[in-house]
Amino acid sequence: MTLLFMQIYTRKRMVFIMIQDIAPHHYDNTYSLLPPRPQDYALCYEPHKAFLRREPDGIAFPTFQDLASHDHGLREHVTYLFSIDGRRFYLADHLDPLPLSGFAMENTEIFRLAEPQHLAFAGITGYQLYQWYRSRRFCGSCGAVMKKDGKERMLYCPDCGAVEYPKISPAVIIAVTHKNRLLLSKYAGRSYKKYALLAGFVEIGETVEETVKREVMEEVGLSVTNIRYYKSQPWSFSGTVLMGFFCDLDGDDETIILDENELSLAEWFDRESIPVSPSRDSLTNEMIMTFIQGRAPR
């Protein structure tokens, strides 16, 4: 097996590492106003793009030492994001990326499989914070310019007192099973064309278990039972926290009534014929692999 799939074998059991599983590296998102040092990273983004350099063994972000000749007051305008192994990452909104040799804007999809993994995780996590800061520049109540708080990750309005915390949307990933079979689907109208599990956002006033039942009924017209929680994952590609659930078909009728606005197809697959390969990135893939190996929670 290749390192790309990040597969670890222990006693014939395969463990899949998701994008946020960066150990032995340590991620610390404690808010801080510490100034950047030469070895710290400057993250610069555009919508769906990140500023980085491709190297033979992976990706790299510019450090403030790299930017020394292009600073022009940059240090005074950066926003601290988080640290990994003590090295700090800052959002550099005022960075002009064009003069820096070897670096270029790349689609954020690169972070799904880029190495080293801890930098890929940093890149997409920083992008989620960039999106939040970018979309909260003005107060939603009175229109005044929002200010950054000095003690926590929060924006406040100096005029009306409104506050904004980072937006995280809860969503569920749903593995619907029936005996030796798993329900897989493909999204409608999206660039992602691979097989996936059912998914949906939690609505106001419902529990996540109710979300599971509602989404399955809406998307494929099936009732489910025996809903059991599996695992969660921060998924900065869409600004969500994903909660994975396994559930059983309620009854024996596998007839699918497809919501064609959401899905292009949905199919039942026997465990031995599931057309999905292991990958590093997502909770969805880990749940599918867990079912294939017969390790789904009962």
Could you characterize what this model shows?
- 14% of the residues lie in helices and 33% in strands.
- It is an alpha+beta fold and 298 residues long.
- The longest helix is centred in the middle third of the chain and has 19 residues, at 117-135.
- A hairpin with a 2-residue loop joins strand 5 (45-46) and strand 6 (49-55).
- The two termini are 29 Å apart.
- It is built from three helices and 19 strands.
- It has helices at 117-135, 208-220, 283-292; strands spanning 7-10, 13-16, 27-28, 41-43, 45-46, 49-55, 58-60, 79-84, 87-91, 104-107, 147-148, 155-156, 163-164, 169-178, 181-187, 198-201, 224-235, 240-249, 263-270.
- Strands 14, 15, 16, 17, 18 and 19 form a six-stranded mixed β-sheet that branches.
In a nutshell, what does this entry contain?
With 298 residues, the chain is an alpha+beta fold. Helices cover 14% and strands 33% of the residues.
Order of helices and strands: EEEEEEEEEEHEEEEEEHEEEH
**Gross geometry:** globular
- Range of strand content: 25-35%
Taking pLDDT < 50 over at least 5 consecutive residues as the criterion, the unreliable ranges are 1-13
Per DSSP E runs of 2 or more residues, the count of β-strands stands at 19
In DSSP terms (H or I, runs of 4 or more residues), the helix count works out at: 3
From the N-terminal CA to the C-terminal CA, the straight-line distance is: 29 Å
Oligomer: single chain
**Structural class category:** alpha+beta
Helix content: 10-25%
Main sheet characteristics: 6 strands, mixed
Using only C-alpha atoms, the radius of gyration works out to 22 Å
Determine the mean pLDDT. Answer: 90
